[in-house]
Specification:
single chain, 282 residues, alpha+beta, Alpha-Beta Plaits, 2 domains, 4-stranded antiparallel β-sheet, 9 helices, 4 strands
């Protein structure tokens, strides 16, 4: 990456230097007699630079070759037929155009490579991220990884494992009423209640915008029910606090608890069984 950045810096400085030299010769060369032609060549040079940046080195060099061929044919024609002397700047155009085209092409390729690298890094970062930004809890990727691991440990040690899902009903309607920011704060408040109601060894996750999950190792159904009651008590306190706000909206939670069974072969089966229990919590 550092090598690529150095290349971009070098090509960029090279382009600036080449353009500076062209302008210096164009402005300070008092022997120039065909200002209009040189101005046209200056415009063509910038146009080729744009084509090269967008199309690449090969396209730029092909365009440069065509321009140089036409320009060289013209100046040699007027030299032979009209006897007009070929000026020094005319040779500069024939050398500068392909050099500028090549440099801009390399600059464009390096920038394109950098952009692709950035996209790859961002995608890799997304794949590595396991924390939900809104709640600070684990996300669904980490949820499935750890649930599979805990299921394996439970089968091996013949211990208890319980999964709890907490769902906020009518999430879309609540979001329409409160707005994006206040709904996010509400979900954050609910996640704080869950954190306060569980043990440090319990694992808490945000698996959907409206659904939170708790993996409780070494905990049976009765132990998870105690946690569920704590969450409901915390929700009651939150509702009292919300009543003091002008945009208060009545909220409730659906909570499902399922204890692990040997029938669950995968983490997805375990989660789906717990989701089915949500519809019975009214």
């Amino acid at each position: 990456m550092e090598k690529l950045l150095r290349k971009i810096d070098s090509y960029f400085l090279g382009v600036l230097l080449e353009i500076f030299l062209i302008f210096a010769l164009f402005i300070f060369d008092e022997s120039i007699s065909s200002r209009i032609l040189d101005f046209i060549m200056l415009c063509i040079t910038f146009f080729i630079g744009i084509i090269t940046y967008l199309g690449g080195v090969v396209v730029g060099l092909i365009a440069s070759s065509i321009v140089i061929f036409v320009y060289a044919s013209y100046i040699f024609y007027i030299n032979l037929i009209r006897g007009i002397e070929i000026e020094f700047l005319s040779y500069v155009w024939m050398i500068a155009i392909p050099i500028i085209s090549f440099t801009i092409g390399k600059l464009g390729n390096s920038i394109s490579t950098l952009q692709q690298s950035n996209i790859t890094l961002r995608n890799n970062y997304k794949n590595l991220v396991t924390i939900d930004k809104k709640t600070g809890l684990g996300n669904i990727r980490l949820f499935y990884m750890n649930l599979e691991k805990e299921m394996s440990k439970t089968r091996r040690h013949k211990s208890y494992l319980t999964l709890m899902l907490i769902k906020l009903p009518y999430y879309k309607e609540i979001k329409k009423i409160l707005g994006e920011s206040k709904t996010s704060k509400l979900i954050k408040d609910l996640s704080n209640i869950i954190i306060a109601s569980t043990r440090s060894e319990d694992e808490r996750y945000t698996i959907e915008d409206d659904t939170l999950a708790i993996i409780m190792a070494n905990t049976n159904f009765d132990g998870a029910k105690i946690v569920s009651n704590r969450i409901k008590e915390g929700l009651a306190d939150l509702k009292l606090r919300l009543k003091e706000e002008n945009d208060y909206i009545d909220i409730d939670l659906k909570i499902a608890i399922v204890e692990y069974k040997d029938d669950f072969k995968t983490s997805l089966e375990f989660k789906m069984a717990t989701e089915e229990e949500l519809q019975y919590d009214v």
